[in-house]
Amino acid sequence: MNADLKREREQASFNVEKITNMFDGGKAATDRRRYLEKVIKRDPTDVFSNEDNHYLHRTERHVRAVAKHVRLVEICRKLGIGSECGGELTESEDWLPLLDAVADDLPTALHWVMFLPNIKSLCDDEQQAKWLPLCRDWKVIGCYAQTELGHGSNVRALETTATFVPESKGGQKGGSFIIHSPSMTAAKFWPGTLGRTANHAMVIARLIDGEGVDRGIHNFIVPLRSMEDHSLLPGVKTGDIGPKIGYNNMDNGFAYFDKVEIPRRNMAMRFAEVDEHGKYSKKHVSDAASKVAYITMMQVRAMIVMGSSKALSMGTTINIRYSAVRKQGYNEDGKTEVQVLDYKQQQHRIFPLLAASYCFFFSGRKLWDNLKKIEDKLISQKPVTKAQVADIHATSSALKSFNTMVAADGIEECRKACGGHGFLASSGLPELMCSYLQSPTVEGDNHMLPQQVIKVLLKLVQAVQSGEGVDAYTTCDSYSLVPSLKALLGGQREKCLAVNKTDMKDLPTLLLAFRHRAAMLLVKVAKQLNDDVMNGKSMQEAWNYALVAMAKASKAYSLFLLLRNFMEAILEEQRSQLLGRAEVSVLGDLARLFALYWMESDLGDFIHDGYLTAKQASWVAPNVLESLDAIRPNAVALADARDLSDFRLKSALGRYDGNVYPHILKAAYKDPLNSVDPGPAYDPELKRLITGGVGVYNGTASRL
Q1: pLDDT tens digit string along 459-478?
Q2: pTM score > 0.90 for this model?
Q3: Catalytic status, residue 91
Q4: Mapping DSSP to helix (H, G, I), strand (E, B) and coil, where does residue 635 land?
Q5: Pairing of the two strands 161-165 and 176-180
Q6: What gap in Å lies between CA 120 and CA 341, rounded to an integer?
């Protein structure tokens, strides 16, 4: 064990294991997760080893990743994992911890992330009875094929068609749909698992009914490959889209459909159907059923929010451990070197990201729990309002957009803050960063989602302004904004009540400031839209002009929610008695730094309308520095509390034992470029140059 890391751990003021238990959901959950990690790490086939990942060709990585999935399923069946939920592994509480334990991206992921939720949400009972057992037994491996080469988030512009053909005109018994890509830009492009792994796809296409009427976008289960030998079926052409910045285990694919015939009942028919004669109709399902489908799909976004915490915690763990081991410069005695972690600049770069990784965890957990609560209410036929569903959509959109942006930028900051060694693949940071970079784009581009957030919140502004309908929001996240909205719309001026620098570190005081800022920017968007329309702009034009302001308001709302959820979670953990006073105190330090850091970053917003005076604003930066001081003694222990094993981190720099330099050299020696000596480029290339005389200067030569 590195002496510096050992000393860092000994000086921690709290019980690391208690925080670890908190992340897992209790001691029993921690024990179970550690057991599952040992099962993976000690598997005798060695298929889960990640030691050679950096030296493998992409094709080899993809093949090995598929092998990991197959072995994982095999292990689960042998251990009985999933038996508690009818054999459906992906519904087991062990599934996500097992995926984390594998510590590599699996090409099959879209099967359980998107394909299964679509079947459960959008297919009727009879269809689910057919398809779910096939998915459970991994006979069907599916993906979600929406995005096309020419269109992504603009779903209404998708070109792929599904045209009904009755049995009387050559269709299958009961009728068929013909899935067709009418142009090059209609080819499906980007769906994960599509390229080489999936044998079925949930294809999003324009439904053309028996009367030739375009009924808009619907979902269709389209077989892609034979379930016997995985060969492409007639009319289907799929493949991998090629190397990407990262996430290259995954076979993001393209698919072109040349008049591919599928059974009529392969259309997802929970909410609409086409009968044997081609007549289209919408089903009269309960309002609850449609909401359940919506909530189920929203859970994918909640998973991304939770994933932002995991990814960012990996980056900060690597950096903090390395910064404690790495020395740079000398103390005043001129003899002892300074730990990089002791430099304020390094702390200012990394500690706010550490705080964010904790903060994101609590909001991700709350979002997931709230979605489950709504789903349970709907299933038990308890009332859930449209306002509640719209509100949690706004919350998930705001947090997905903000969290993934901070995590992606933060991981790269962790890499840069490791200096030159952070540029090594063996640091683990380049792959972590590049694989995570998909997250700001998938499930709603981060620069598009703020529009959806603001569209929901503007209705709350209207309700407050009119005094009608506010009660519909009492159980919603956005209801917390109402006091500030009432003040702003009523012409009152809210002001920060801090009277000294210490007051400006008070968490409730900081939360009020973030609430005011979010409400103020939201009202500003509403006013801008109204003024632009009154001055002659069309609503579409006014909306376009307001997009920048919407992004700022959505970010402000996200930060308010994150801080509020962090503070509430600390109180809940304290009441549960899972954490002691020391653990609660250190979580409070993180929450305080999170708030002060982002206040300092966006200080102009808080001063803009006089909420903060110049004097109050001057206290923020010094308080940030004091918060860094508070966290410094616990930094390594706070990173350790995430309990990320060396097997999962895959980093020479972030090793638990701190033996950084031997493992950097070990990784260097392992490179195939070092397998022979002289190097593989010596004969014939370098040999011709050095001994063959190719570069010998023989005097002036004639020019051609």
Answers
A1: 999 999 999 999 999 999 99
A2: yes
A3: no
A4: helix
A5: antiparallel
A6: 49
